[in-house]
Amino acid sequence: MNIIILKKNLRDALSIVEKASGENFNLPVLKNILIKTDGARLKLVATNLEIAVTSFASAKIIEAGEITVPGSTLTAIVSNLTSERVTLGTKGNTLRLTTDTYEATLQGLPAEEFPVIPELKSEERWLECSSAVFKDGVSQVISAVQISDLRPEISGLLFSAGGASFTITGTDSFRLAEKTIGENQIKTSLDEGVRVIVPLKTAQELLRNFGDDKPLTITFDENQIAFRTDDFTIISRLIDGTYPEYDPIVPKSTETDIEVQREELMNALKLTGVFTSRVHEVKLSLRDNKKTLELSSVDQAIGENRYLCAVKAKGEPVSVSFNWRYLLDGLKALKGESVMLGLNGDVKPAMLRSAGDQSYFYVLMPIKSV
Question: Which parts of the sequence belong to the DNA polymerase III beta sliding clamp N-terminal domain (predicted)?
């Protein structure tokens, strides 16, 4: 292999794939990135056997070839180069990198030892949307997801698609978030509904790699899902299992509705959260005048505090406690200046929405009073 490539192009391609490489004592090649020529482009691939990430970079191809080299080492070198042009060449299992002022050789492994990246059995089921719209939806939901060894089916995001809309859902059993992307923002081959569970790490890779607004194609079969733009492809396994039926816990109505400025409530939570105990408990109390929401917290070893927020409210006065970090996650995901907090007493799920936006909601369980 012999190619000339701009440092920026190589650096950008490496940044896409570098996090996907994995540690495996039985398969040391997984620490490497596969570098190979692909027509008039350079192709880089990394995998940990659960997710495979491919990126492409424009380059001048003088001689075709392929090799695998340690991804972290190559990334560190390229990130610190000062020259704009980089020449890559191979001799046996060695990669030689040269610029006007720098030269390095990296010991690699044959490309033949790199795992074969599996292709989807069928690409008949597909969905297209803007990568910016998709990224926005995933970013609003992902904070509600945690890895669970006991319940692997909730260790990812549920993608529900078919016909009129595309829904992204996440839960850790204490909170639940859902974003709906409407039919005017998607194209799809799906006539019937499809539900697949995408691992959390895959979703994190998607958020990390999406930049400019570009067309995104999503295809999936029974076991895998693929995300493709012009610049990269991510193929991931799907999580086996049945996602829990969550519709019964989503409040259909609320006894108390509170409208409050989002930034003020976020600031109030951060302040009162300073005095919380191990469970991060903050109490929210709607006063009888329904114009003031009091946030308070107590830690016997530190002290106590309270914060008063001006609100608009209707319904019954109520006092309810939440994990303030979970509530803050929901507020961060919302858009707009004001938010709606719907409550049903101190033991039933509460709901957060942005005022005037029905495409997203965040459901949070209260902390039961002892």
Answer: 1-118
- What is d(CA 68, CA 77) in angstroms, rounded to the nearest whole number? 15
Entry pTM: 0.91
Averaged in consecutive runs of 10 residues, what is the pLDDT profile of the chain (370 residues)?
A: 97 93 82 96 95 96 97 96 97 96 96 91 88 94 94 95 87 96 87 89 91 87 92 94 94 96 97 88 92 93 93 94 96 95 96 93 88
Coil/strand/helix, residue 150: coil
CB 250 within 8 A of CB 167: no
Of the candidates 311, 307, 336, which has an alpha carbon nearest to the alpha carbon of residue 324? Answer: 307
Rounded Cα–Cα distance for residues 132 and 204 (Å): 15
Q: List strand residue ranges (DSSP E) for 135-214, in order.
A: 156-162, 165-171, 175-181, 186-188, 194-199
| Other CB atoms within 10 Å distance of the CB of residue 41 | 18
DSSP secondary structure letter of residue 116: P
Residue 311: CB atoms within 10 A of its CB come to 20
Q: At 107, list the tokens.
A: 């010991």
Rg (CA), the chain: 25
- What residue ranges define each of the domains in the chain, with the CATH number in brackets? 2-113 (3.10.150.10), 126-237 (3.10.150.10), 251-364 (3.10.150.10)
The values of phi and psi at residue 143, to 5°, are -65, -20
Q: Phi/psi zone of residue 332: left (φ > 0), alpha (ψ -120 to 50 degrees), beta?
A: alpha
Cβ–Cβ under 8 Å, residues 369 and 321: yes
In degrees to the nearest 10, what's the CA dihedral of 158, 162, 164, 166? 20
Beta bridge partners of 36: 43, 66
